[in-house]
Amino acid sequence: MTDLSVNIAGVKLKNPIITASGTFGNGREISEYYDLSQLGAVCVKAITLKPRQGNPPPRIAETPSGILNSVGLQNGGIDYFLKYELPNLKRYDTKVIANISGSTVEENCELARRLGRDVDLIELNISCPNVKQGGVSFGTDPKIAAEITARVKESCAVPLIVKLSPNVTDITEIAKAAENAGADALSLINTLLGMKIDVNTRRPVLANNTGGLSGPAVKPVAVRMVWQVFLCTRLPIIGMGGIMTGEDAAEFMIAGASAVAVGTANLVTPTAALNVKNELVGYLEKRGIKNVSELIGSVLAY
Q1: pLDDT average, residue stretch 233-243
Q2: Exposed e or buried b for every residue in 44-76, given b needs 16+ CB within 10 A?
Q3: Do residues 100 and 46 make contact, with C-beta atoms less than 8 angstroms apart?
Q4: Which of 28, 190, 234, 270 maximizes the CB count within 10 A of its CB?
Q5: 187: which residues sit within 8 A by CB, 6+ positions away?
Q6: How is domain 6-53+72-191+214-295 classified at the CATH fold level?
Q7: How far apart are CA 243 and CA 262, in angstroms?
Q8: What is this structure's pTM?
Q9: Is the pLDDT score of 119 beyond 50?
């Protein structure tokens, strides 16, 4: 029998398949299709201190091999999450990762404090390109990334994952800054900043003008960045960006990821994360690999 368990900063996941923040709601709809206990972890939609309505519509646009989104962190806020969403997720035998996205360092610290030990890990979102405050501005400067990581780490009662932006010149600089500041793990990549224009109206398709590109179109960039970060840090990595199949998941793990997050695929097929898990098992069994951890960082570079 294949051992699918992996370790992220001391937290054992029964398998390496996670749902990516913002593509899964908080599991209520998807749980009608399969038992969330079959996943290694669920990463919830970004949590802010106060409720957010998000950006005005239209805020989703299809592109070749992907989508652009500018949802803008719509959510019910921390009080709503703790009262309604978290108790529902606790019903399942899976780890819960809380994605936090404050507009300031202090807001992120407060979010981490309020979550306490009610979740298994916290993912600090310093990389969202769809909000005008915080978000990507935290994640594109190594000094600022280090400062916010260190401050939030002081407020965390559970391991801290820092989510990295691909919209930088050298992602390894941000990764090393986060590691040196106390991050327990890294997740990458968030969406690439993109734009789509209606050639008939000559207006941007998204009301926010630009949005985050996700889906298969970004996978080669994501795999490259995971590999680079694996080579320059000692932290466990959660890889994401266009994962649609079990072989995609294997590719990320071979590049250096300890676990993977399925995102845009959930919007295409409700059972996507479960399908990826089952296909990964098939990939491993076909090759006689008894432990999924054997894949991690096993790329044979030229």
Answers
A1: 98
A2: bbbbbbeebeebeeebebebeebbbbbbbbebb
A3: yes
A4: 190
A5: 123, 161, 162, 163, 164, 237, 238, 239, 240, 261
A6: TIM Barrel (3.20.20)
A7: 6
A8: 0.96
A9: yes
